[in-house]
Amino acid sequence: MYDQPTGTTPEKYYNFCPRCGAPLALKFMEGRQRIVCTKGDFVFYQNPHAATAALVVNGAGEVLLVKRNVEPRKGAWDVPGGFVDWGEDPAEGLVREMREELGVRFTPEALVDGYHDWYDSQRLAVSVVILYYEGTIDGELKPADDVSEFRWFALDALPDDLAFPHVREALAALARRRLHT
Ligand SMILES: [Zn+2]
């Protein structure tokens, strides 16, 4: 089960400097507690992971959702997408994820919104920023291992079990956007 983390600092996850192996310590700098090496001058900055998600609407006005087949939130409905790779443009990352996850060619058309959320990764609560792109798909939907099925949902009849808080927010933003265009 996915739980919101109680703390927002990741210092408890790390014990040793990733560059030299010396113990890490906390130091207040640049407005917040930072994780620093006790031997050298390395600051172990902790920034959110970047992720992307696709908002795809069919001709009937229904949005594409996928059922998660991996933890966290296995079995819950989610928007398709995934983490951006190191050095990768976010929209290109989403095109790659849509190809890997659903076997379709995704064409991003507009950046709809961005959200922060917490994500359980390897039993660590990691900070994630998710960018939502509206776009179209080409090809036949073929779910890969990380999703068990896909389904189209009317925007006013979404499933109760959505994987993350930002999914409902983003779908509400999509519904508002479609009313105004
Ligand atoms: Zn060090």
Describe this structure in words.
Strand 8 (105-121) and strand 9 (124-138) form a beta hairpin. The chain folds into two domains: 11-44, Single Sheet (Ubiquitin Ligase Nedd4, Chain: W); 49-179, Nucleoside Triphosphate Pyrophosphohydrolase, CATH 3.90.79.10. The longest helix has 15 residues, at 165-179. The strands form three sheets. Strands 7-4-9-8 form a four-stranded mixed β-sheet, with helices on both faces. It has a three-stranded antiparallel β-sheet with strand order 1-2-3, with no helix packed on it. The radius of gyration is 19 Å and the shape is elongated. With 181 residues, the chain is an alpha+beta fold. 21% of the residues are buried. 15% of the residues lie in helices and 41% in strands. The site of zinc ion (ZN) has 8 residues, from loops.
